[in-house]
Amino acid sequence: VRDGPVSDQSRELLRSRRLLLHYMYKLQSYKAIFGYNFDQNRYRLFREADPVDLATALAKDRNFLGLKVMFTYHGQETAPYRLNILCNVPVTVDPQQYAELLPAVDDKWPVKRWFKEEFCERPEVMNQLGDLELNRNMTSVQDGPMDDSAEGLSLFYEMRAKYMEQETRTVDFAVRLLSIGQSKGVSGLADLIDGLHDYEVVVRDLNRKEISFDKFQDMNPSQRLKLVLEDATPSSIVKMIQDRLLKPLAAVADVRS
Prior knowledge:
Layout: H1 8-34, H2 40-48, H3 51-60, H4 64-73, H5 75-78, H6 82-86, H7 123-129, H8 150-168, H9 172-183, H10 190-202, H11 213-218, H12 221-228, H13 237-256
Helix pairs in contact: 1-4, 3-4, 8-9, 9-10, 10-13
């Protein structure tokens, strides 16, 4: 094989072996995710599905062990779409539950194999075997892989946190996600964390939920202050400043420290 083309007979044998290995890998992953509670129909769907679609479904189902298996043992297919896949985790899930799956700067997910590489899997051999159509149902991901550069990760955490706040109408999980991103070396998230804390103090604590975070971000400091004190009177303004601004902001400062 190294010195020339593979014969037709050898090619068919190698293709058959390669296909068998593919099914063996899928079976090992299935058992790692679902245990030995084998369901023939579920396994058939699992075996034929594209790895990216499998990982996406596992993310939606909050199956973080399954995601870890797919990232680790099917990394060649899933790695380019890792951020796309993670965007499918429900926003109501505490990011701390899947913190280890979240990306870090300059830290690629370690990819492993279920079995030692065989002869038919060597690149120089596989190039001669052609497309085996191992995944009959190709990925349904319409968009291309999300940018996982340092700048791309900053954007991922920022957009994901904003979406979480928008959908849940709370800042807790959004701030927690951003804090995890900071711990993983992602830069440019501090201002958003501060903005979410301020939003919670000024808007949420006043029960002004009609004001979105984006609208709040567009307000200048005087507009925000007016919002806080719009129902103040000369006799109550000092107490309102203490109760609505100073005390909540002091509490936020304690949390940040």
